[in-house]
Every structure is written in structure tokens, then in C-alpha cells.
Design goal:
Blueprint (H helix, E strand, L loop, with lengths): L1 E2 L2 H13 L5 H19 L5 E6 L3 H15 L3 E6 L8 H12 L4 E3 L3 H10 L2 E5 L13 H9 L4 E5 L21 E5 L12 H4 L1 E5 L13 E3 L2 H7 L14 E5 L7 H12 L4 E5 L5 H7 L4 E3 L3 E2 L2 E2 L12 E4 L10 H10 L4 E3 L2 H6 L13 E3 L3 H8 L3 H6 L1 H12 L2 E4 L4 E4 L5 E4 L11 H15 L3 H21 L9 H15 L2
Helix pairs in contact: 2-3, 2-4, 3-4, 9-10, 9-16, 9-18, 16-17, 17-18
This protein binds ligand NPW and potassium ion.
The site of ligand NPW has 31 residues, from helix 1, helix 2 and helix 3.
Cofactor: Mg(2+); K(+)
Family: Belongs to the NnrE/AIBP family.
Protein name: Bifunctional NAD(P)H-hydrate repair enzyme
Length: 505
């Protein structure tokens, strides 16, 4: 499923009408009917529904929704919030159909009158503004949105909650806080941004008859369950441990032995054939006690942290994961540089490895094999030399620019993880929940990604599937044995079995 910007959505609409001969009024009828169908699943016929209607096509959808629900016997009142002359085109046509059907329309003359009605409503359907919103809300929408937000009614937004921008880059806005948003045709970028996503509540996408071939292929899409099931690696009955990849994991320190142990264990649980750990000797007894299946290579250390160069032939491995629990000692930096310059295999860099890499980002361009960076927003902001809010205002654009200019795969972690390939293609993986917001969860992800990179033809698919497994494991576990509060990174590793049994079929 593609994720669209407002422009991509408008272009799709225009091309469908101009080139495919679709009719704008028919699309609006389809949109309104599709939304009404979703509303019916959530609302009882004895509940009082208010539909709030604005000037543009979002308001036009509102007329269709109100008519469709009234046709079916629901208790609905439609409120037009703008003067009559503002309603034009397809929206006006549907207003006339609504009135022609004999239904009543209330006009906003005095906001307190509407507010008294809103106090009585069980359900409010927000068809005020859609993706055409520009700038901060003007009167009366600012007052109405503020009032609706503090009512007890169940709030359903049509396409996008009023006031919320469709695209990234806008951080100052007042938005309707929806409980549920019925998105038309394709999710907008703001569904996946940290500052806008919470306004949507639960969301679903409805199909309205726009021909997919008339959509100019957007660069962003959503990773979905069916894609994961189709592309997760399958075990060959005639395989041996070498077939599934020998992974080298470099990291850990005397005071942080857990991270690398979690990564190594997650890699083996995710199908890696062999996991070899390069950590300081002082950390190894602790690491091996958590993962006896892993082997070790000798590594020099200073003050319990990796130091100097590693005496390892990197070509003996199929991929490398670097940085977890490594610490930020200057002495460790040389290993990061050595791996970047010498390892002719895919390399994943996480955590403290990213901190070291920041000092010599120019090496990235010289690498012949894939490099994967897996920063959380704080680490990404550090790599870019900007603040976290600056990054989160435009994570798609910033991530794309970085991945393209440095020739790397970028896994920008968050509630919606954005995976960018060196060619700028972006996939959002949005599974998981707040149970993952805990120390060690990123280390587990690095191990899973390492294992899948070694078992997949496509790096992008491996990264999407790794994030999917990580998120879905949290969902499965918190749906049964654990809560989002008590879930540990170690539980995630053990829970991977359940995810593989569910999805790798
Ligand atoms: N295929 C499709 O794509 C389909 C799309 N469909 C639907 O169309 C929607 C997009 O419709 P759209 O373009 O008419 O924009 P939309 O958001 O309804 O309103 C624009 C109006 O808002 C106003 N306005 C703007 N900013 C404002 C502010 N800050 N504060 C206050 N007012 C503000 C501005 O008024 P003005 O500035 O002139 O006063 C303008 O008149 C889309 O979300 C979906 O629901 C479906 O019908 C099916 C097919
Ligand atoms: K809306």
C-alpha cells in the first residue's frame, strides 16, 4: 500500500478523472458510502450522530455520509459550518442530493447553539476539512475543533482529522483528536509522523474506485503482513548451518555485556547459522552465559572496552553487526573505521557504533557492499547535526537525503520505522507497541536484522521483515502473557519462535 503526500493524492484524483474518465461526483459518492459502511460497524442505530460539514470536498463526503446513514435509519443531524456560497462543485451537487432526498440541514449561525447540540451527541463525524487544509485553523473551525475535542462523543474523522496536515514539515497546528479515522484511498504521510499520528486514533483505509495505475508511484509505501509472509526466508530441508549465514557481532563491554548477548541470541533465534561475538575478554564470560551457542574471537580491550584493531578475517563472515553495547571510548573508534574500510560484506551499525561513525561518515561512500544504519531519532539527529524535533518534523525527507547522499540503508526507528534504501525508496513498518520502548529492544532488532540480511536476497525486504518480526512479536506477547509495561527484551527473543511459526509459513 502506497503512502501519499497531498500532492500525490490530488494528482491521482486528477488523472483518474482526466485520463480514466472517472466522475468526481461518483468518487465522492463512493468515498462517502465507504466511510458510512465503516461508521455502521461502530455505531448503534439508537445513537445520536452529528456530521460536521466544511466547505471543500471533505464536506462533500460529509453530505454523502449523512444521507447514507439517514437512508438506513440512523439518527443523524448534519451541520453546515460555512456560508452557502462557499459550497461548490461536487460538494454542492451532493448537498443538493442530500436536500433533494428530503433531509434537514442545520446552518451554523451561532457557535453556542452547535455546542449545545454537540453536548448531546454520541458520535461526531468530522467532515470539516480534509487534505486541503492550509495554515492554522480559521474561525469557526478553530472553535469547533477545540469544543469537539473536549466532548465525550466518539469522534470519527473523514480522511484526516480536521486541522492535521497531510504532509511532513508542519508542526504548529490545532487538530481534531479523533478516536477513529476512515482514510480515503491511501494513507497520508502524517499517519506515520510522531507529532501527527496520535490525532488519527485507530485508522483504516477505504477503497473508492481510483484506478491504481493512475497513481504516480510514490516513493513511500507501507510494509504489510502479506508481503512479510511472502518474503520471509524459508528453511531448505537440505541446508546446513553455513547456508543460513555466519554472522559476526562486534560490541559489548565489561559494564555492558548484555547488549551484544541479546543481539547474538536474537540472531540465532532468527535463523542465523552461526553467531560469532567479538567483545572484550572481560565481558565474554557474561555474554557466553546467556548464549552458549555463540563462539568468540579474541579482541583487545582497554578499561573493559574494545580497543585497537581486530585480528579477524572479515571474509569468513556473511555479514557483520557492529556497535551494540560497545561504549563510546575513543579507543573503540578504530574498530568501527577498520570494519567500514576493510569488511567486504554487508555491515549493520547500531548504537555506539553510530556515535563513532559520526566522526568519519565519508567512508560510507567508499564501501562496495551494503551498509545498514539503525539509529533511533536521537542517534539520527546526532548523525545529521540537528535536534530531535527538527528531525521528527521531516523524518521522510531527512532520512531520504541522508541515505541517498551516503549510499546506505537507513532504518530510522520509532513507533513507525522508516526504512530507506540508497535509491531513496522508503518503506514504513508500523507494527509493535509501547512494550518495545525499553532498553535492549534495539539490540534484539539488530540481531534479527543481521540474521535476515544473511538469509535474504533483498536487503530492503530483510530490513522490513526484521522490523515486522520485532514488532509483531511484541504484539503477540502483549496480547497474551505479558503487558506493555513488563515486556523485556529477553522475552522478545523467546517470543520470536511464535512469530516465525505464525508468519514464516
Ligand atoms: N480522490 C480524492 O482525492 C477524493 C477526495 N475526497 C475528499 O476531498 C478532500 C479534499 O478536498 P479539498 O481539496 O476540497 O480540501 P478540503 O480539505 O475539503 O477543504 C478545502 C477547504 O478548506 C478551507 N480551508 C483550508 N485551510 C483552512 C484553514 N486553515 N482554516 C479554515 N478553512 C480552511 C478552504 O476554504 P477557504 O480557504 O477558501 O475559506 C477550502 O475551501 C479529501 O480530504 C477527501 O475527504 C473525496 O471527496 C473523494 C475523492
Ligand atoms: K476531516
Amino acid at each position: 500500500m502506497y503512502i501519499v503526500t497531498a500532492k500525490e493524492m490530488y494528482d491521482w484524483d486528477r488523472k483518474s478523472i482526466e485520463e480514466a474518465g472517472m466522475d468526481g461526483k461518483l468518487l465522492m459518492e463512493n468515498a462517502g458510502r465507504a466511510v458510512a459502511g465503516q461508521v455502521e460497524k461502530q455505531v448503534r442505530s439508537d445513537q445520536y450522530i452529528i456530521v460536521l460539514i466544511g466547505a471543500g470536498n471533505n464536506g462533500g463526503d460529509g453530505f454523502v455520509i449523512a444521507r447514507t446513514l439517514l437512508n438506513k435509519g440512523y439518527a443523524v443531524k448534519a451541520w453546515q459550518l460555512v456560508p452557502d456560497e462557499k459550497i461548490k462543485g461536487d460538494a454542492l451537487a451532493h448537498k443538493q442530493l442530500y436536500l433533494g432526498a428530503g433531509y434537514e440541514l442545520d446552518h451554523l449561525t451561532e457557535v453556542n447553539q452547535l455546542f449545545r447540540e454537540l453536548d448531546q451527541a454520541d458520535v461526531v463525524i468530522d467532515a470539516m476539512l480534509g487534505i486541503g487544509v492550509e495554515g492554522k485553523l480559521k474561525s469557526p473551525f478553530d472553535q469547533v475543533v477545540a469544543y469537539v475535542n473536549q466532548t465525550q462523543a466518539y469522534k470519527i474523522a473523514v480522511d484526516i482529522p480536521t486541522g492535521v496536515p497531510a504532509d511532513e514539515g508542519v508542526t504548529e497546528f490545532d487538530g481534531l483528536q479523533a478516536d477513529y479515522t476512515c482514510i480515503i484511498a491511501a494513507p497520508k504521510m502524517s499517519v506515520f509522523l510522531q507529532h501527527t499520528a496520535p490525532f488519527y486514533g485507530e485508522w483504516e483505509v477505504v477503497e473508492i474506485g481510483l484506478p491504481p495505475l493512475k497513481l504516480n508511484k510514490p516513493s513511500q509505501s507501507l510494509w504489510e503482513r502479506y508481503k512479510a509472509i511472502a518474503s520471509l526466508p524459508k528453511r531448505n530441508p537440505f541446508s546446513h548451518k553455513g547456508t543460513h549465514g555466519k554472522g559476526l557481532l562486534i560490541g559489548g563491554s565489561y559494564l555492558m555485556p548484555g547488549s551484544i548477548a541479546l543481539s547474538a541470541r536474537a540472531a540465532l533465534r532468527s535463523g542465523a547459522g552461526l553467531a560469532t561475538v567479538a567483545s572484550p575478554g572481560s565481558a565474554w564470560p557474561s555474554v557466553s552465559s546467556h548464549i552458549p551457542e555463540a563462539t568468540a574471537v579474541d579482541a583487545k580491550e582497554v578499561n573493559g572496552m574494545l580497543a585497537g584493531r581486530l585480528d579477524v578475517d572479515f571474509s569468513n563472515f556473511d555479514a557483520i553487526a557492529l556497535g551494540m553495547g560497545m561504549g563510546r571510548s575513543n579507543a573503540s573508534q578504530e574498530i568501527v573505521r577498520q570494519v567500514m574500510e576493510e569488511a567486504d560484506v554487508p555491515v549493520l551499525i547500531d548504537a555506539d557504533g553510530l556515535h563513532h561513525l559520526k566522526e568519519f561518515l565519508e567512508v560510507l561512500k567508499n564501501r562496495n557492499r551494503p551498509t545498514i544504519l539503525t539509529p533511533h531519532p536521537g542517534e539520527m539527529a546526532g548523525l545529521l547535526g540537528i535536534t530531535v524535533p527538527e528531525l521528527l518534523a521531516r523524518p521522510f525527507e531527512r532520512g531520504r537525503r541522508f541515505a541517498c547522499s551516503h549510499g546506505v540503508y537507513l532504518v530510522l526507528k520509532g513507533p513507525a520505522t522508516i526504512i530507506t534504501a540508497p535509491d531513496g525508496t522508503q518503506v514504513v513498518e508500523s507494527s509493535g507497541n509501547a512494550g518495545l520502548a525499553k532498553g535492549g529492544s534495539g539490540d534484539v532488532l539488530s540481531g534479527i536484522l543481521l540474521a535476515l540480511v544473511m538469509q535474504s536476497e533483498s536487503i530492503s525486504e530483510a530490513l522490513c521483515n526484521g522490523c515486522f518480526l520485532h514488532g509483531k512479536t511484541a504484539e503477540l506477547l502483549t496480547g497474551e502473557r505479558y503487558s506493555q509495561s513488563d515486556l523485556l527484551a529477553t522475552d522478545l527473543i523467546e517470543g520470536l519462535s511464535q512469530s516465525f511459526r505464525t508468519f514464516s509459513i
